[in-house]
Amino acid sequence: MLFYTVLILFWGCTRTGSHTRLSASFSVNILTIASVCQCAGSIMSSLSVLPVECLLQPFPVPQRLMLGPGPSNVPARIAAAGAQPMLGHLHTETIEIMNQIKSGIQYAFQTRNRVTLAVSGPGHAAMECAIFNSLEPGESVLIAVNGIWGERAAEIAERIGAKVNTVVTSAGGYFTNEEIEQVHIMPVVFFLTHGESSTGVVHPIDGIGDLCHKYNCLFLVDSVAALGGTPICMDEQGIDIMYTGSQKVLNAPPGTAPISFSERACQKIFNRRTKPISYFLDLSWLANYWGCDDKPVRVYHHTGPVSSFYGLRESLAILAETGLENSWKRHKEVAEYFHKGLEEMGLKLFVQDKKARLPTVTTIVAPPGYDWREITGYIMKTYNIEISGGLGPSAGMVLRVGLMGCNSSKANVDKVLEALAEALKHCHKSRV
What we know:
Layout: H1 2-14, H2 24-45, E1 65-66, H3 76-82, H4 92-109, E2 115-120, H5 123-134, E3 140-145, H6 148-159, E4 163-168, H7 177-181, E5 189-193, E6 195-196, E7 201-202, H8 208-214, E8 218-222, E9 241-243, E10 256-261, H9 263-269, H10 283-289, H11 306-322, H12 324-344, E11 361-365, H13 372-383, E12 385-386, E13 388-389, E14 398-402, H14 410-426
Parallel strand pairs: 1-12, 3-4, 3-5, 5-8, 8-9
Antiparallel strand pairs: 2-10, 6-7, 9-10, 11-14, 13-14
Helix pairs in contact: 1-2, 3-11, 4-11, 12-14, 13-14
């Protein structure tokens, strides 16, 4: 390519007059270009890994209707917010956005907790933040396992050296308060998943906070798949630590995880004997970074995902405009409409107790004789709609359909019901 550039330059000069007008200055230019060619060749020859062809072409991301258990579709308003100009992570405007996010989380959680913030990471990061800070090595934790998230919480607690005890129910089930109290273990923390997306259960919360406080125990709740889609009030229900994810009902991109700590939780956490195992998730640092500790200066801890903060703020603004109670009501009505349509098709719901059905993620008993992978694959290929199979204890047993935030509508229910009906007509069904 450089050879042709030199040739064109030479041709341009000769066109201005006779060939004898090739000047000394042009000769210097030729020498300069030759030097550049030699230098470029030297640089190129020193590279053992060259750019791959796929990175030199744009990647066409398809538009899909995301009706799996998450992430959900991102509305144009939230996507536009995330595309705003970059700011420094401690600029005055960024701090104001963070303050507004805190207020939005307090509204969504129904809490006045001072230590309320968003972890830079997915819901998993918030789970680890909650467990790492509230438990020290050797302390006991009781974990209610009614799906995969209880299983993972138990593994995380084990990894930091906590004494892990579990109470386990079958997939699709939940615990009564009496069953929890009868465990006869005096834990420091009791963990419960509010919206178990692997099984489609929304766990009853009332009374558990009082039960935990009776035994001087912190009540830790995972509400990643439920927050905003079904009622929960952190302060009123005595929850000490609660977290969620941005990519479910809030419809923001994955990568920020709202979390809140009660004064009881903070008193224990900020008087630990040992430092939390994770520097990145150390609440004393995070509380300062988010301006939750009343100190006059926020000290640099990490570079927060500023663009993601824009999107999270916008998603919380939409929830505030909609109203929590209106959001709860819509998700309930749409889920019931969906459940009725499924039953009219002859499909069975995995969670038997109607009151325990999670409005945001519906689990359907995998139709007998069908390969669930073929069903989800057909719907993706034919309708460009994502639904998924089971996860953890429900793997191979269910189909999961998420109707969260902007995706929770009767129009989307009609689309997925049509897609399911066609899939059952066209997918192979064995005689077994």
